[in-house]
Design goal:
globular; single chain; mainly alpha; 3 helices; about 60 residues
Length: about 60
């Protein structure tokens, strides 16, 4: 299990990767704070693009 989420922003990239991977339970307050940060949104969009690219190549990301 992962620890407590950080107080951000700025949000550590490692935390955003864990969040993207589904390691944190759904938490509307936390998600609202993360998605309110444009830099965090850019990182999450980049992570999703990498995951999409891996799926297209037939190599699903870990956790899929």
């Amino acid at each position: 299990m992962v620890g407590e989420p950080p107080d951000g922003p700025p949000w550590p990239v490692e935390f955003l990767a864990d969040l993207h991977a589904g390691l944190y339970p759904d938490n509307p307050d936390l998600l609202g704070r993360v998605y309110a940060d444009p830099e965090a949104c850019r990182v999450l969009e980049s992570l999703e693009q990498v995951a999409d690219d891996l799926r297209r190549l037939g190599r699903p990301p870990l956790g899929d």
